[in-house]
Amino acid sequence: MDKIKKFFEKKKADTKFKLAGEGHKLNETVQQPKLSKNLAPTQARSEASTSAAQQQAAAAALARFEKKKDPTPQQRSAAIIRAQALKELELEKQDTSIQKLTLSEKTQQLPSSNELAVSGVYYKCPLIGPEVLPKKEIEKLIKEFLYQQLEDEEAGLTACLVIHTLNKPQEKVQQCVETLFRYLDNIVQNPAEEKYHKIRINNKVYQERVGRLEGVQQFLQAAGFQLKSIQNAQQEPEDFWVLLNTQPEHIEYISNLRDGLISAEAIRPDLDRGIQILMPSQAAQRVELPSDFFWLTTEEIKREQQLKTEAAEKGLMLRTRAMRERDEKAASRKYRFTLIRIKFPDGPVLQGTFKVNETMQDVRLFVCDALEEPFIEFNLVSPAGVVNQPDIQDSTLLDLQLCPSAIFHFTPAVASSSGYLKDELMILMQSM
């Protein structure tokens, strides 16, 4: 396990140096790179937003500098934002009482992209870089990253990660790992036994459990095996993996590789929260979500209204426990993600994307990370009467019926006169 940890630490350090860009002399003038016209939409949008954020961050820094001259005024950037939020509150005509966000009842036509609360569901993987992309694209980058690492001196440990990461389902991966572990363990326990130095390619166990999985060939090569054609008992040529090096130091390496295979874990992309800070009037608008949030197809989404009508009719009839359980299972297959919004007393609304099997504890941690003072006491109250209390910390958002979207009200134990969210998040507040 220590070997795997050191391997990851080395890769993370290498990634940081790569992200830092090319080196330059202290007295060298560095020309800023120009943006390519062929940038992917997500990358271009990310760089444009970063540029705007840098400008606003510079303005905030200037405000802090002015504060040092005169310590009595509040930080100007935060004050301006809070004033803007209060102005929006005054302009709101709708009742701002607790309300649950729902899908549009009219699903005959899907909303356009500019009407969606979020453009989609995106992922990130800090190990390979800062990119935030759709899941298929980030998984492609992970695969490319792993295959690049197969060329260095830690090819064996990288092959372990390839096996765990690039193969599905998990049952097949587990069978493969157990079989490869047995191959190597036999060698470690009986280094002089020649029968353990060969693996027959046409063996049924090898073909069903090992041979078809990605990364196995690279793993065996890293362990010191080579493909050779050997005559079998019928004097016919047959392919074998043959271990050529049986020196004590190599047996020790095989022992470490065996342990690394068991302790390795798949590299999985993390769900990007897609964090946004909304004006109260923006948050009051009806939520429209992209199809990524649902297991349903487009046609099934269009039938949402019909399903609601049927649900209302079911409410008028006496239903058995089995019928209720069947409906609950059907609901669990409907949603993949949920959009959570947290409305703060001073106006701003914090928005993030969650998996439906995440818990209330995950929501609370999300809020804590966004707070200027993360250790203040607070509650989260939902329209369904759900309060973020210890007894529901481990309840999933799906179990609490907070899908496909919901809003919480942030209720602090002690009110703050200077706002709650971090300034670097407040600058993300969208303009009307």
Please provide a written account of the structure.
The model is unreliable at 32-51, 67-76 and 93-113 (pLDDT under 50). The protein contains 15 helices and eleven strands. 25% of the residues are buried. It has a five-stranded mixed sheet with strand order 7-9-8-11-10. The chain has a three-stranded antiparallel sheet with strand order 2-1-6. Strands 3-5-4 form a three-stranded antiparallel sheet. The longest helix has 29 residues, at 41-69. The two termini are 51 Å apart. It has helices spanning 2-19, 41-69, 76-91, 135-149, 155-165, 170-189, 204-210, 216-222, 248-263, 280-283, 298-302, 304-314, 321-332, 360-370, 423-426, and strands at residues 123-124, 132-133, 198-200, 225-231, 237-243, 270-271, 276-278, 337-343, 349-355, 378-381, 405-412. It is an alpha+beta fold and 432 residues long.
Summarize the structure.
The chain has 432 residues and is an alpha+beta fold. It has helices at 2-19, 41-69, 76-91, 135-149, 155-165, 170-189, 204-210, 216-222, 248-263, 280-283, 298-302, 304-314, 321-332, 360-370, 423-426, and strands spanning 123-124, 132-133, 198-200, 225-231, 237-243, 270-271, 276-278, 337-343, 349-355, 378-381, 405-412. The protein is built from 15 helices and eleven strands.
List the helices and strands and how they pair.
Blueprint: H1 2-19, H2 41-69, H3 76-91, E1 123-124, E2 132-133, H4 135-149, H5 155-165, H6 170-189, E3 198-200, H7 204-210, H8 216-222, E4 225-231, E5 237-243, H9 248-263, E6 270-271, E7 276-278, H10 280-283, H11 298-302, H12 304-314, H13 321-332, E8 337-343, E9 349-355, H14 360-370, E10 378-381, E11 405-412, H15 423-426
Parallel strand pairs: 8-11
Antiparallel strand pairs: 1-2, 1-6, 3-5, 4-5, 7-9, 8-9, 10-11
Helix pairs in contact: 4-5, 5-8, 5-9, 6-7, 6-9
